[in-house]
Amino acid sequence: GAGVSQSPRYKVAKRGQDVALRCDPxxxxxxxxxxxxxxxxxxxxxxxxxxxxxxDKSGLPSDRFFAERPEGSVSTLKIQRTQQEDSAxxxxxxxxxxxxxxxxxxxxxxxxxxVL
Amino acid sequence: xxxxxxxPLSLVVHEGDTVTxxxxxxxxxxxxxxxxxQEKKAPTFLFMLTxxxxxxxxxxxxxxxxxxxxxxxxxxTATQTGDSAxxxxxxxxxxxLVFGQGTRLTINP
Lengths: 116, 109
Known about the structure:
The complex is a heterodimer. By secondary structure, chain A is mainly beta. Chain A has strands spanning 5-7, 10-13, 19-24, 31-37, 44-50, 53-56, 65-68, 75-79, 88-95, 106-107, 111-115. In chain A, the strands form 2 sheets. In chain A, strands 2, 4, 5, 6, 9, 10 and 11 form a 7-stranded mixed beta sheet that branches. Chain A is globular, with a radius of gyration of 13 Å. Chain A starts with a strand and ends with a strand. Chain B is globular, with a radius of gyration of 13 Å.
């Protein structure tokens, strides 16, 4: 079956540009997560959705980062006025149920963002 | 502050060797510990551990959790070149995973 898909796979942006990263979770999955992975580091939590509700956005590094999931399926992570420190791989993950900490998260391939 | 520490950060062995990867953690509201394998694409799920002392096994891979000493190990026996990857340990709190830095494992033929 189809896994989590993300697009684009690669994005090069000039400093100051806005970017939008898309995540298509596994069909029917309730929970959706975004993580940021810097080079040589483990992923770091950005935000969590349960259906269309954004229940935790404590990991978003600044107000330039915004995420939405308006219909409870596809999600978009938007970064405004990109900075060089935003360069990273952005990973999306989904899990079938409301997250309890004991649900496996399934990851997409990530979007590699390079800000010049 | 929540912390997950993996060791070693990098490991190079020969095909056929056995390796042990370590993960220690200090995380509030622990729910489970997960291991993922990351090649140049999506992290793929290996194991979820919730109870101490119960080994989980899948082929040549096995893992165990010690909730008293706050650590987990991932063992790979009879390593193959296809095992080369970054292995990520993550601790689940409700609504998020806290990851370690990863161990980069290289298997030479």
